[in-house]
Amino acid sequence: MQRHCMNQKELARRWGMSHRTLERWRYTGQGPVFLKLGGRVVYRLVDVEAFEQSQLQRALTIRNAVARAQQAPRRLTADPVRASSQSAAVRRTPRAC
């Protein structure tokens, strides 16, 4: 018989984390969708797999963004030579009262 749900300790074991982390995630609104049946918390396997897939998508998106940033040539937003000469000119200008 195939199980469609797991409790928090089974899920914590699956992910190699503390079951207290899952409790904190539920409290803060993070983590996978869960069901609370009476006093029991269960996670449906389809919801767990969907959450895992969303985390994989996020990790791939971040990795691709970092790779693009490393490949793009860096451009200065201002010319340092002009900026220093302009700031020096501003300092020499007498202050009007």
Summarize the structure.
The protein is 60% helix and 11% strand. Strands 1-3-2 form a 3-stranded antiparallel β-sheet. By secondary structure, it is mostly helical.
Polypeptide structure, described:
By secondary structure, this protein is mainly alpha-helical. The protein has one domain. Helix content is 60%, strand content 11%. It has helices at residues 8-15, 19-28, 45-71, 80-92, and strands at 5-7, 35-37, 40-44. A three-stranded antiparallel β-sheet has the order 1-3-2. α1 (8-15) crosses α2 (19-28). The longest helix has 27 residues, at 45-71.
Keywords, please?
three-stranded antiparallel beta sheet; single chain; 4 helices; 97 residues; elongated
What fraction of residues sit in β-strands? Answer: 5-15%
Q: Write down how many β-strands occur, each being a DSSP E stretch of 2 or more residues.
A: 3
**What would the average pLDDT be, to the nearest integer?**
82
- List the helices and strands in order: EHHEEHH
Structural class: mainly alpha
| Domain module tally | 1
Unreliably modeled segments? none
Distance between the termini: 88 Å
Shape type: elongated
Helix content: 55-70%
Main sheet makeup: 3 strands, antiparallel
Number of helices: 4
